[in-house]
Structure formats: structure tokens, C-alpha cells
Amino acid sequence: MGILEVKDVGKRFGGLQALGDVNLSVAENSCHAIIGPNGAGKSTLLNVLVGKLTPDTGSVMFDGQSVLGLSAHKINQMGISRVFQTPEIFGALSVLENMMIPCFAKRDGSFRMHAIENMMREKDIVDWADRILADVNMADKRHMHAASMSRGDKRRLEIAMCLAQEPRLLLLDEPTAGMARADTNNTIDLLKQIKSERDITIVIIEHDMHVVFSLAERITVLAQGSPLVEDTPENIKGHPKVREAYLGEAAA
Amino acid sequence: MLGLNRKDFLLFLVVTFLALFAPILLNPFPVGSAMAQFNAGYPDLMQRFVIFGIFAIGFNILFGLTGYLSFGHAAFLGVGSYSVVWMYKLLDYNILPGLFLAIVVSAVFALLIGFISLRRSGIYFSILTLAFAQMSFSLAYSVLTPITNGETGLQVYTSDPQILMSGFSPSSPHLFGLVMNDSSYLKFGGWEFTFNNGYYLCAVVLMVAFYLSIRIFRSPFGLMLRAVKSNQTRLNYTGLNPRPYTLAAFVISGMYAGLAGGLMAAMDPLAGAERMQWTASGEVVLMTILGGAGTLIGPILGAGFIKYFENIFSKINDSILHSWFAFLPDGLEDAVVFIIHPFIGKGWHLTLGILFVLVVVFLPGGLVEGGQRIARLFRRKPADKTDNDTSAKTDPAE
Amino acid sequence: MDAIILQILNGLDKGSAYALIALGLTLIFGTLGVVNFAHGALFMIGAFCAVTLSRILNFSFETIDPGKTDFLGNPATVETAYLEHWFGPEVGGAIIDWSVPLAILFSIPVMLVVGFVMERGLIKHFYKREHADQILVTFGLAIVLQEIIKYFYGANPIPTPAPDAFRGSLDFGVLLGFDPNAIIYPYWRLVYFLFAAVIIGAVFAFLRFTTFGMVVRAGMADRETVGLLGINIDKRFTIMFGIAAAVAGMAGVMYAPINSPNYHMGMDFLVLSFVVVVVGGMGSLPGAVLAGFLLGILESFASMNEVKSILPGIDQIIIYLVAIIILLTRPRGLMGRKGVMEG
């Protein structure tokens, strides 16, 4: 039994079968990549996992509990964090304030009325936020306006915000999309570091093979809404069906 | 100090100082001098400064922090006024039960309206609040006449029960015998200063209201509200539910508005439906934006600015203008007066409208941002000069 | 039955005004993506175009008529309009009498200019800013426009009569076989409705059958793609703003005889028109028109005594109530697209 179990999930948009009979089992503390050509249903699958879309058929269980029909904040409170294709951070706030929000969410739950306390005197929260910032090498950017940072730093902050909640499952949606090579490599290093230091399951959806092969332990190839194969990176590289359907000459 | 950091505490001190000494500070010109008409230190106007200040501070907690633009806050203002007058009618002229009721009733109203309106965001939220306020206004005028006394407005009649009224109780609004209308006067040379009980009550309430708003701004709750404005998607995916946060902000700002409405009736024992009209909601929007939405001091500045100029600007007439520009040659004098004429007196709203458009276009941070820019300009030139007085006044949210 | 027909008819003229303003609001919102709180002010300026033209046409000079005396026995002064002097009392009087319909011709260039100036001078700088900022700046603009009108025309309503020929009422009931006087409907309101129908038809035809309209419709659907085709969409949008202003202006001109224009009529209509747009569905032109008429008729039904005796005060709040219910149950409105303006 994996920590994330997707069974027979299907989703239609009008006449289009976006997902059909998707079965997926992600083992705890592994890194599982989902790849596939454009329109293969990767984003649809991800939106199903975070509750944004409800599938027509099938079930999605996280740690034995169904996530279907739950709102985003409830799914997050179960221990699933998500990183978006374009970094979703609180642009108007400082880096430290950005970090403090998930810390509060972890400590106080989805809503707590603490309107009189001074937030900077919540020592445990500030320390916690600072510790994570130090972990991801952003301590020096503590007081920066989040919106004014580079794309790579925004991504780093977003991942750090997810880590602050100590999620059991981290979903990454093309985390290096639109990044320069150096930023991409930094992000890969950061994710490797996270993997080695924490007990965390990572599901990554990615276009960039370099990223996938440097991180993933298992890879599922989606094509036309259904899994084509699932295997280790080494086997996927040489798999004829995959080469045909997806990698083409790019992998050669 | 008082749980505030140094900068905020200084800001609080400045506001306290201004509020306490307003009767002196706003009367800089001796009685009888040509400029005496620009004195603003009379109770009626000062009360309005402070009451609208409270209204705007509350509005800013919603709009400034969460970005939800309500066009219906006047409804709570009206509800507050009606509550206070009803307490006069039922009990006696002591304002305390009324103010208490005003806050409670407006909170209930805000909870109801907010719960429904906050199901939508953006312009839909604005229209929903507007629709609710207009509905309240129309109902207060028509069907609810038994409660609101319709077009006449609610007031106290001799036939009212006033069960706590005894022979000794004052027959105008008071706080345990301290009559709101009473003033003491101080004559000093050519100057005369009026210290009005009602004004000081309002000023104390303003200080409390302002203090609480600083605490809210600096609290984790305030942080969440700013997060709502900045990125709701991320907030959702951080395991936080934005709805109760925004609803709480809506209710708090509704309570501020109810308190302000209650104070209006505490100064003058009347309540009318026109207080609920959407133009009144528009006014508080103007004040907050003009002063600087999302800043601590902005709403107070905006309220003071608009109320001062509304009263003073509208008093300037052509003959005053002529006397000002008498030094110019006749033809030029007439021309100047002719050009300025549309903007003064009854035309004050035109000036306000233009000013507002200019602020939204060029100075989205309002007067506070303007002050900051000027401060920066000065700081750059004389590098050795410290920035003690300007920085205290201009304090952004973060 | 006759009572119902009467209420439908009564709702048509107000509904026409709602529909015309909402149509313009939707055009502006759909093309430029701007929430225009100054649109009511454009309607109001239109109404004052009628007032202005009627004043211009009535320019008079005074003569002393030796044949008449006032009550003191002095020769009386008589005012004669220049038009009557030049063209004779018959023709001149007719022109003056028809000042409101003539004002449509007068208002079109005025409103186009006002629209172009507004869009180029102010609103175009707000395309990329938040909707809240757009609301705020156009709200400020509305205040400025209404105060300018107040400065020149005063605060009191100015009666602006319709031509004599339309001043009576049509006994509509007789045409339908009811008793005489069962359904009395003023001619001018009938004219207003027909006028609104023509304008609405013209706008739709313009969008459907001209190349210009096709580009604009494409732009409403997907602005960026149209931009990529190398079509200068901005210029067309400016023109669209002018057209929307002209539609609002003409609606105002023709409304002048129904309600004497005053400086705050724009704001009064604006709030309701926004409700109409939201009910119709933000960004949907047919939705705006449909909702305009529906709400106008609904409002007139709610003001029937029979209804008011059951639900007192319902006539005052019916529109808001409908808006709230629609927004909560069907946030896209009657015919709106998904996701417009949320967030």
C-alpha cells in the first residue's frame, strides 16, 4: 500500500476523455515523476489530486482517506502541499511574513482569531520560519519584498513555505518551467537536499527530462489520459514504447 | 509600550496628542481676525473629524487589509444611529447603553450581510454590499417606518417611555451626567478655545479604536488578511480558509461603522435614513483612499482632510476671493476669481472629485504616500537631517 | 388582464433605459475590461444635451409691443425666440417644439467627443490595473462630471417637455378590445421604447454585420489573439467606448421628457444599471438587454397595490433582492460567461 493510491480515475470534459483508468500507487518517502507529452492529462491528474477537480469515476486515497470533494485547505491540512507552475507566493508581503503564514497554519489550523497578539512576538513561529529560511539558504533575503525577487528565489520560497508545514506529500507542477539553467540546477539541488534530509513523499510533474532523471525513483508515463508504463528511470529510458510515444529523438 | 513597537507607539502618541489638543491646534487664528473663519476648532466640526475617522479606520481594516471593496458600509452607520436613539427613547439619555447596542446590532447586521456577500469576490462583492445597503436605505424610508420614523427621522418625543428618566437626569445625551453638549471655554489673549465634553468622548473612543486597529494590523490575524489580499490561491493551498478571516474583518469593520453611527446620535440625538444612502458609503471610500488605504494613519488623515475642506472650503465665497487677490490688477483679479469660483463654496465637491481622481491615478497610496515621497525628497538633499517628524506620520502596513 | 398589460407597458420605458445603459456598460466591460462607474454620468450628460439644445433653440430677444400693456398700463415687453423671428412662428415654433428629438443629433457628436476624451485621457491608463482601481477612478470621474453639470445647470430638475404631438396618451386598451381608459399609455413612453429597440437593434447589427463589429467581437472573446493578428484593437476599442457613450447619451436625451433631468440622475441609474448588468451576466450583451427589460417590468409589477398590500415595501427593494438571489444562486447571471470578473 502506497501513501497515495489512485484507482481507476476517469474524467471527461465534454467529448474529451482527459483521464481514463488511471491507476497509480506512490510509495511512502519516494520520489515519483509523472511525465508525458502535452495534453496527456498531467495537469488534470494533479488537479484531481488536490481536490480542484472531482473525477467522474474512481477514487483517490491519501494515507487511507479519500481526498475527493474536499476543499483545497482541508486537503492541505491532511498533509499534502502543492507547488505551482508559476510560483504562487504572497507577493505583497516580505519573505519572512510569507514564511510565517504556513507556520501559523500548521500550528493553529485553518482558522484562528488571534487579532490582538503581535505576530512578531510569536517567538516559536518566527524561529520556525527563520529555521526553514536558513535551510533553503534564504536567511539573507528575510526582509525582502517577495514580489521583487527573481523567479528562482520565488520558487525556492514557495517550496520553503510548503516545507514549513511538514507535509507528508509534496506535489510539484513543473517546478522548473520558465527557469534559466542555473536556477533549474539550484532547484534540483534543493529538492535533492529535501529528499535526503526529510521523510517526505514527492510527486513531480515535469517536462524537463534532466530534472526527472536526476530526481525520480519511479516514473509513470501518461499518454492520452492513461498510464502507458510505470518503471524505474533506467528502464524508462530504454523502453521502446516510451521512446515511441514520448521521448522520440529527444532521448536518443 | 502598550504592546506596540517603538514606531507604532510613537504614531499612537502623535494621534493622541492631536486628538487631545485639537481644540487648540485647530484654532490658530484669534477670534475676529480675517482668518478666523478657517478655524476648525469648534465642537461640531471636531466631532465630525473624529467620528468619520473612526468610520474610516474600520473601513480600512476591511478594504485596506483584504482588498474587498464594500460599497455598503453606510448601512452599519445608520443602524448604529438608530440603536442609540432607540435607547434614548426606551431608557434615558445616557449614551452608554445605546453605544453598546449600536456595536452589537451592527455586528449582527455585518455578520448577516458579510456572510452572504463574501460568497462572491471582486466587483460582485461590491455590488452585493451596495445592494444590501440600498435595500436597508429603502426599507428604512418606507416599510420600517415604525422603527425608523421614515422620512422624518428618528427622534425622542415626550411621549416616549424613557423608563430610567428621573427628574435629575439631563434632557440631552450624557454619559452618567456628563452632558455632551456642555463645553468649557478658555480665553487667551485674542483666542478662544472650546473644550466640549462630546468631542472629548469621541476623541477617547478614537484613541481606543486607533489603538485596536494598530494591534489588528500587527497581529497574525492582520497578516492573514493581508495574505487574503495578496494571493488567495496560495492561502487555500496553505491549509487556511480565507472565508472566516474576511468575514471577521467585515464584522469588525461593521462594528466600527456602527460605533461611528452611534456616536453621531450621541452628539445629536437624531437618526435618519439618509445616513444609510450609498453616497455615505462612497464618502468613506473617498476618505480611506485619499488618506492611504492599507496604512494605519491614512484613514484618519483622509477623514480629517475631507471634513475640514468640506466645511472650510465651502465657506469661501467670491468676496473672500476678491479680498485675497486684491493685490492683482482689477482685470486679472476678476479673471482669477472667475477661474477659481467653480471649485469653492458649493463647488467643493468638484474639487474633491478632481483630487480623488488625481490621487487614484498618480498617488495610489494616498496622502501617506505623498508624505513619504516628500520626506524622501528632503532626506536625499540634506543627508544629515534626521527624519523624526515625517516618518512618524507615514507608516505603511508593513 | 388589463392590469397586467398595463404593468408590462409601464415597465418597458424604465426597462428600456436600464437596457440601454447596461448595454453600454457591457460593451465597455466586454471590450476594454473596464468597470465604468461613470457610465451613469454619461446618461446624465445626454439628458443635459437635451436641456442645452432646448435652451439654445429658445434664445430670445425682447421687444416692446406697443399693442399690449401690462397691468400698470406700461407697454409690455415680449420675448421672441430668434428661431421664430427668422423662420416665422410656424416653422420656428415647430423646431423649438421638437428640441428633444433634435437633441439626439446634437448629442451624438458631443457624446462621442466626451467618450473619446475620457478613454484616451484617463481610462486607458487603467486597463492593466485592478478592477477596484477602475471602479475608484471612474467613481471619482462620475463625481467630477456631475458637479460640473451642477455648476452650470444648478441643482434643481429642469423640465424638458416632449414635442406637443407626443404629449397625449394612447388608449391602448381600446386597441386590444378592453374598456376605454383601462390601459392609458403616454405616447412618449411608447416612443422611448421603440427608440430603445431601434438603438439596441442597431448596436447588435453593427457588431454582427460589419467588419469592425466582427473584430470587436473577436476582441471581446480573446483580446490577445486578435492583437497578434496585427489588428490595431486599441483604436477600435476607443471607438467602441465612444459608441457606448453615445448610446448612453441618446438614452439620456430621450429620457429627459419622462423625468426632468437633474445632476444626480446618473448616479441613481448607475446603481440599478450595475445590478442589471450583474443579473444579465457580466460581459453578455443579450443578457444586459434582457435583464434590463425584465427588471424594469418586475419593478413595475412590484409597485402594484395588490402586490404591495401582500409584501409591503417590495417595490423599493425588488431589484436588489433579485440581484442578490441571482448572484448567490447563479453567479454568472442569466447569460454570462464563466469566470468573468471573479477574484
From TrEMBL, chain A:
Keywords, in A-Z order: ATP-binding, Nucleotide-binding, Transport
Entry keyword annotation includes Metal-binding: no
Protein name: Amino acid/amide ABC transporter ATP-binding protein 1, HAAT family
Pfam family, one: ABC_tran
CDD domains referenced in this protein's UniProt entry, alphabetically: ABC_Mj1267_LivG_branched
Record flagged with keyword ATP-binding: yes
All residue ranges annotated as the ABC transporter domain in the record: 4-249
InterPro entries with a match to the protein in the record: AAA+_ATPase, ABC_AA/LPS_Transport, ABC_transporter-like_ATP-bd, BCA_ABC_TP_C, P-loop_NTPase
Cellular compartments per GO CC: plasma membrane
Domain of life: Bacteria
Species: Salinihabitans flavidus
Lineage of producing organism: Bacteria, Pseudomonadati, Pseudomonadota, Alphaproteobacteria, Rhodobacterales
Recorded GO MF terms: ATP binding; ATP hydrolysis activity
UniProtKB/TrEMBL annotation, chain B:
Membrane association type: Multi-pass membrane protein
Tagged with keyword Ligase: no
Segments crossing the lipid bilayer: 46-63, 94-116, 123-144, 198-217, 244-264, 284-309, 321-344, 350-371
Family matches, as InterPro entries: ABC_transp_permease, LivM-like
Gene Ontology MF terms: branched-chain amino acid transmembrane transporter activity
Chief site of localization: membrane
Keywords, sorted A to Z: Cell membrane, Membrane, Transmembrane, Transmembrane helix
Gene Ontology, cellular component aspect: plasma membrane
CDD domains associated with the record: TM_PBP1_LivM_like (cd06581)
Pfam families xrefs: BPD_transp_2 (PF02653)
Compartment(s): Cell membrane
This protein's name: ABC-type branched-chain amino acid transport system, permease component
Native source species: Salinihabitans flavidus
UniProtKB/TrEMBL annotation, chain C:
Membrane topology: Multi-pass membrane protein
Domain of life: Bacteria
Subcellular location as annotated: Cell membrane
GO BP term, pick one: amino acid transport
GO terms of molecular function: transmembrane transporter activity
UniProtKB keywords: Amino-acid transport, Cell membrane, Membrane, Transmembrane, Transmembrane helix, Transport
GO cellular component: plasma membrane
Transmembrane segments: 16-35, 42-61, 102-123, 190-216, 237-258, 270-298, 310-328
UniProt cross-references to InterPro entries, sorted A to Z: ABC_transp_permease (IPR001851), BCAA_transport_permease (IPR052157)
Family classification: Belongs to the binding-protein-dependent transport system permease family. LivHM subfamily.
Entry protein name: Branched-chain amino acid ABC-type transport system, permease component
Lineage: Bacteria, Pseudomonadati, Pseudomonadota, Alphaproteobacteria, Rhodobacterales
